[in-house]
Design goal:
CATH architecture of the largest domain: 3-Layer(aba) Sandwich
CATH topology of the largest domain: Rossmann fold
Strand order of the largest sheet: 2-1-3-4
Radius of gyration: 20 Å
Strand content: 5-15%
Number of domains: 2
Number of helices: 10
Structural class: alpha/beta
Order of helices and strands: HEHEHEHHEHEHEHEHH
Number of strands: 7
Largest sheet: 4 strands, parallel
């Protein structure tokens, strides 16, 4: 059954790629800018590999960093130099609810003004991980200089920005399979989805809402296959928040794992894009507690390429 669904999904995606290619050739030349946090060489290589299939049909550039105007402008210039008349900007981030996304929207002319204090650029290029039409690096500057210089970017083409991963069905499929690798008796198992999370309380509520939506989709996928899980909880660890918030998030996670473990088995699953150490910090927080864990992130998985293809397809319909 699973193999049949996979074949049908692939046929559907081949149709999408063919249809979008026809739209592109008939209407305009479209370029794709993938925006990703960036990390070490392994982190970046996984993102680059997920983007490779798109490069067969479109000029593609990757802008590494967190709303970094230098890498964003460089990617836009690269695509414009190839004669594109439209750019589809895809944020390959876990959530749409963050300072990173809002500053990116401002830089791309999708917001009239900054919604948060300017973010200083950081080097997340991870070295020279480039392929034809892909790659990037960041430039170090002081935060004060960055705040003074931060202005909307310059470009001549139409630009459409899609949504981040959020509660996309592809994410639910990947997470369910990650859980399945650890599951033995679903009806007695509590699953806990753990994401990084933002600093602000408002953003965190929206992150949790997306995670809870994913939980519902995961449960439905599981029920089609066999028995549903006993329950699924969603939490954020909020690594970059103030110490008081960080400590509270840590204790909340530990309490949840400890209490759930009194009434059955516990499976903890990281909701992180790519492996880079942050997900291992989750395991560090849970020392001394009983739970199942394999640290697998969303990448590597070919279905992240499906997400990119679907994002392009939906944007071309607009």
């Amino acid at each position: 059954m699973k193999n049949t669904i996979e074949v049908l999904r692939r046929i559907y995606l081949i149709g999408i790629i063919f249809f979008t290619s026809c739209l592109t050739s008939l209407a305009q030349k479209t370029g794709v800018m993938i925006m990703a946090h960036g990390g070490g060489p392994q982190w970046n290589a996984l993102v680059t590999k997920a983007a490779e299939p798109l490069a067969k049909g479109y000029p593609v550039s990757i802008a590494w960093g967190m709303a970094d105007p230098v890498t964003l402008q460089r990617s836009i210039d690269e695509l414009e130099s190839k004669g594109v008349t439209k750019i589809i900007a895809i944020p390959l981030f876990i959530s749409s609810h963050s300072e990173v996304i809002r500053q990116t929207e401002y830089l791309l002319g999708l917001r009239d003004k900054l919604a948060d204090p300017p973010m200083a650029p950081m080097d997340h290029s991870g070295g020279s991980h480039q392929m034809s039409g892909m790659g990037g690096s960041s430039m170090h500057r002081s935060q004060a200089d960055h705040a003074a210089e931060l202005k909307p970017l310059k470009f001549k083409v139409k630009l459409i920005m899609t949504h981040a991963l959020d509660d996309d069905p592809v994410v639910a499929e990947i997470l369910r399979d990650r859980i399945d690798e650890l599951s033995s008796d679903p009806s007695r198992e509590t699953v806990i989805l753990v994401a990084h999370g933002p600093n602000s309380e408002e953003d965190n509520r929206k992150w949790i809402a997306s995670l809870e939506s994913l939980s519902g989709k995961i449960q439905k996928l599981q029920e089609v296959k066999s028995k549903g899980f006993k329950q699924i909880f969603s939490v954020t660890v909020r690594d970059d928040a103030d110490k008081a918030i960080f400590d509270q998030a840590k204790e909340q996670l530990r309490a949840l794992v400890r209490q759930a473990g009194e009434f059955g088995n516990v499976i903890v699953v990281p909701v992180f894009l790519s492996s880079g150490g942050r997900e291992q910090a989750v395991a560090e927080r849970l020392k001394g507690l009983a739970y199942k864990w394999n640290a697998k992130t969303l990448l590597p998985d070919s279905r992240l390429t499906d997400f990119l293809n679907e994002s392009v397809y939906q944007a071309l319909k607009k």
